[in-house]
Amino acid sequence: MKIQKNISLKNYNTFGIDAIANTFIQIESQKHINDLKLIINQLPKPFYILGSGANTLFTKDYTGTIIFINNKGINIIEENNNDIFVEVQAGEIWNDLVNFCVNNNYYGIENLVEIPSTVGASAIQNIGAYGMEVKETIHTVKYTDLQTFKSVELSNTKCEFDYRNSIFKNKLKNKVIITSIIFKFKKYSTLKLNYGSINSELKNQNIISPNLKQITSIIRNIRASKIPDPKVIGNAGSFFKNPIISKHELKIIKNKYPNIIYYPVNNNSFKIAAAWLIENANLKGCQIGGAAVHKDQALVIINKGFATATDIVKLSNHIKNSIRNLYNINLHTEVIFI
Ligand SMILES: Cc1cc2nc3c(=O)[nH]c(=O)nc-3n(C[C@H](O)[C@H](O)[C@H](O)COP(=O)(O)OP(=O)(O)OC[C@H]3O[C@@H](n4cnc5c(N)ncnc54)[C@H](O)[C@@H]3O)c2cc1C
Fold it and tell me: Contact 40/67 with Cβ under 8 angstroms?
């Protein structure tokens, strides 16, 4: 296992922030995990487990050790007439797994096409899009505990999945390396089409019973028209989570802003569209240094090519303060500040 010193992280985060890592190691196999166990006490702390850096903002140089997860492999481990169980190594690129499923007619993650992620990180915040969440197909998460180096298998219900949340963002935060995930996909159609403009796109294209290729192609096009490609314009997707407020709070805010966009979560709580809050506060296009709110997508902060991490942090704080002052709502970042 290679240990590198003073490595630039510019190509390891989708914002393209040029922070320097004191120490950088790459995990490509179980052997590398075993090697890590032998040297862990000599490595500078703290540790940060890094996937593709699509949800990470390096706010400064990293004085500890970056553990970059790059183990690969997609293996079918069991199947019956209805289901197929596939074990995928954590360093696999998420979209490669979606393509694998589409090519083999396995259902369950098609609406999550083009989410920039490693497979391991998909479980961390329970990635979701177009009415689907990864928790619906995760069967077991396998991880190595960084203290004891024991391998643990956590079944779906023990992962405490929630909206953009899981046990890995709470109790197990920075304490484990997810090494692989076992997914349970369906061999029959379980398409979810009633979200966003999927149905209207299908009608436009005269498609009556769509297949996986058609659905992923439609979602790919919708996403490309809405979210800037991080390879072209640095960004980390949705910067803020949609805030959840009570029925009482919703009533107060609706009196003032009848057009507010919201969705029921349960009888007493409602998810507010953070993008609406930001857009209605006239913050689209707002720029600090090289960081700006995307002109079409209020939830996306972009690097205009010369943003420093400080620019992004300042802009994030400005948005949070403006939203608090205007609506008395606290925004929380989806992006992880390091
Ligand atoms: C253009 C764009 C669009 C996006 N669209 C969506 C969307 O539609 N839906 C959505 O949910 N998200 C979306 N995101 C956010 C992002 O794709 C997800 O958060 C994704 O899971 C991040 O994966 P990553 O490998 O880049 O994680 P990283 O940023 O590298 O890491 C994220 C977190 O996971 C931890 N981690 C990573 N790998 C491991 C591991 N193997 N073991 C333990 N901990 C680990 C890290 O320590 C960190 O806490 C988008 C981002 C971008 C840039």
Answer: no
